[in-house]
């Protein structure tokens, strides 16, 4: 049973750190589900240790994750968010760990470990700019990955990728993106050198695919980051200034 103090803290957390245009306030059942997902003992210790920096309950609330949702976690890595989504979506939901073909050789194995641990998780491989799923999605989620897809070596047509995300979602579905913030005016010029992208640039690109901007969260913002360092520099690693944007497919 979830400890009462932990539940109370998680429920309170999902109501803070957000500045949104149409945030749907989580129901008590949703906040309890978020708290239970964060407290799940199957989560690796190294991921739990990152919670104070990643604010998982706030991110689940901002993404409006619910039981029964169909969710694609794009390039999930070790599965920090995939595990949380799987717990909240539950037996009636489905979570797709989408691994791009280009990085499948090293990223399929971690995705397969998620599939083995969670019956509602499936690995999907494909090209980012033509991604397809076997049913319409409620949520497409991308954490600290979008900037990479502008790096020429990935070979991604980002405009086509955004349209593929749009097409994969059901009407009213959400596209939530977390990324390392670049300074104003930098656009995509630092995606390879610093692994940062200007938030305004990302927003323009996604809106161009037909999405409506639906809000932002400041839960992982860090005003102390001057946005001049590579995100892997130990002076800032794990504590970069990050934006979290939510976009909605009209309908």
Write a short abstract of this structure:
The protein is an alpha/beta fold and 251 residues long.
Q: What does the model show?
A:
- This protein has 251 residues and is an alpha/beta fold.
- It has one domain (4-248): Rossmann fold (3-Layer(aba) Sandwich).
- The protein has 9 helices and 8 strands.
- Strands 1-7-8-6-5-2-3-4 form an 8-stranded mixed β-sheet.
- Strand 3, helix 7 (104-117) and strand 4 (121-126) form a beta-alpha-beta unit.
- Helix 2 (28-38) runs antiparallel to helix 5 (56-62).
- The N and C termini lie far apart (39 Å).
Keywords, please?
single chain; 251 residues; alpha/beta; Rossmann fold; 8-stranded mixed sheet; globular; disordered N terminus
Number of helices: 9
Task: Please tell me what the overall shape is.
Answer: globular
Strand count, sense and closure of the main sheet? 8 strands, mixed
Mean pLDDT, rounded to whole units? 92
> Poorly predicted ranges (pLDDT <50, ≥5 residues)?
1-16
Secondary structural class: alpha/beta
One letter per element, helices H and strands E, the order comes to HEHHHHEHEHEEHEHEE
Major sheet: arrangement of strands: 1-7-8-6-5-2-3-4
The CATH class label is Alpha Beta
**Share of residues in helices:** 25-40%
Q: What is the architecture at the second tier of CATH?
A: 3-Layer(aba) Sandwich
Percent strand equals 15-25%
Strand element count: 8
Task: Round the Cα radius of gyration to an integer and report it.
Answer: 17 Å
The CATH fourth-level homologous superfamily? Vaccinia Virus protein VP39
Distance between the termini: 39 Å
Give the tally of structural domains: 1
Reported by name, the CATH topology is: Rossmann fold
């Amino acid at each position: 049973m979830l400890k009462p103090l932990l539940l109370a803290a998680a429920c309170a957390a999902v109501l803070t750190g957000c500045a949104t245009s149409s945030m749907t306030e989580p129901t008590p059942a949703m906040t309890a589900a978020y708290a239970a997902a964060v407290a799940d003992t199957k989560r690796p210790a190294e991921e739990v240790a990152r919670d104070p920096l990643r604010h998982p309950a706030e991110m689940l609330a901002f993404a409006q994750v619910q039981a029964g949702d169909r969710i694609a976690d794009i390039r999930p890595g070790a599965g920090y968010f995939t595990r949380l989504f799987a717990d909240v979506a539950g037996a009636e939901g489905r979570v797709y760990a989408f691994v791009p073909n280009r990085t499948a050789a090293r990223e399929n194995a971690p995705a397969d470990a998620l599939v083995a641990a969670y019956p509602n998780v499936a690995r999907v491989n494909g090209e980012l700019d033509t991604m397809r799923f076997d049913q319409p999605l409620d949520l497409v989620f991308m954490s600290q990955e979008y900037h990479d897809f502008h790096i020429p070596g990935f070979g991604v047509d980002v405009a086509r990728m955004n349209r593929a995300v749009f097409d994969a979602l059901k009407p009213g579905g959400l596209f939530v993106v977390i990324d390392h913030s670049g300074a104003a005016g930098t656009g995509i010029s630092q995606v390879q050198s610093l692994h940062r992208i200007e938030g305004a640039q990302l927003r323009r690109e996604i809106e161009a695919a037909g999405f409506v901007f639906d809000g932002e969260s400041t839960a992982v913002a860090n005003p102390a980051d001057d946005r001049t360092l590579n995100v892997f520099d130990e002076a800032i690693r794990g504590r970069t200034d990050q934006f979290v944007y939510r976009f909605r497919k009209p309908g």
